[in-house]
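User: I'm putting together a teaching handout on how sequence relates to shape, and I'd like one worked example. Could you take tRNA modification GTPase MnmE from Rhizobium lemnae, show the sequence you're using, and then write out its predicted structure as tokens right after it?

Assistant: Happy to. First the sequence, then the structure tokens directly below it.
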Amino acid sequence: MVVPTIFALSSGSAPSGVAVIRISGPSAFDIVGRMAGSLNRIRGMNLRTIRDRNNSKIDQGLILTFPGPASFTGEDCVELQIHGGRAIVAAISRELLEQGCIAAEAGEFTRRAFRNGKMDLVEVEGLGDLIAADTEMQRRLAIEQASGGLSLLYQGWANRLTHARAMIEAELDFADEEDVPGSVSDRIWPDITLLHREILKQVTATQSGRLVRDGFNVVIAGPPNAGKSSLINALSGRDVAIVTSLAGTTRDLIEVELDMDGFLVRLVDTAGIRETDDVVEREGVRRARRAVESADLVLDLSEIDSPAEQTSFLTDAKRLRVGTKADLHPLGDTHYDAYISVSLPQTIDHLRSLILQELKQSWEAISSLGVGRLRHISHLQQASIFIEDALKQSDIVLRAESLRLASDELGRITGRVDVEDLLGVIFSEFCIGK
């Protein structure tokens, strides 16, 4: 099958100071050579005039050449660094189409890198996360995955399983040989037991990794007029919620995303919790309770010395008890974790530090482990089940088969085993030109 040569604008939409057009495929050098003069098959950079088929000048720019397989995609690649005007980009794109290139689909360059063995599926997902990263911690998490750190972890586990299976096969096939021990159990099963624990730890780390990737979900809950909307405005530094003295002003969930010390924190303001006959407000209370159930942390607000009803439904959630309107009340009550007033900025700063403390405690428990995507969890869990089966089996043949199945599950994470049905979903998350 003939592999088409693809191109895309990789630097974002025009106009811009510089535009980068990326070309990859077997005809990349020939096509660009017809537009800018013949190219040597060496890695380099040249200043060239780019012309159309009528020899009319389109622009002058830098031509970067990356002969395969030493390129991002593993194919011959050329990059055009040109002026970023819309007309220039459009003219060069038209000429590339006329020369036989086809426009790349989202993620097609990275898909080719995967197909040609330049990246595994874990690194591909890390690259996607890196492009989408909004905070410093998201960037750090993604760069570790994109650079292959997590792949090395998974591959190391697969190698240990392969070694164990080889030892079992040696015992089965060469039991009469003097240099093959009569039993491998004492040599491999302690390590397989340790591997089982490591995989279970990784499942926990990956589940908790969403705190960085998807955000730490902080829900502000409490009775009406406790100061919930005032607090979300104060923490976000802008008026995102309407604040009035009327109970029931907030009817629906109000969300705002903040960058706190490099972590993504998602604040959710909720309707005041109370019994009401108002149909709309009652729906708001239902949504508030549902938000609390999925929260990573609940800020349980009540006005200091207020006789307001206790929000007993919060007792099972991880929470901070927050006394509000501290400027109006003495601070004698010690059952609060924090006292705040929007008119006292230092109290808001203190609460922000408590939120970060809770977040960092959750992160520190997993930061020493590579954190994968949620897709990895099912395969890790299945691998742990197969390893557990191997540890429990008495028949050595069945043990070997369970270890093989566990190894296949790890291979599905990195893309080494039947993952074709996943590729369309994963690469569709990428932008055009990557």
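A couple of points you could highlight for students: The chain has 14 helices and twelve strands. Residues 5 and 27 are 6 Å apart (CA to CA).
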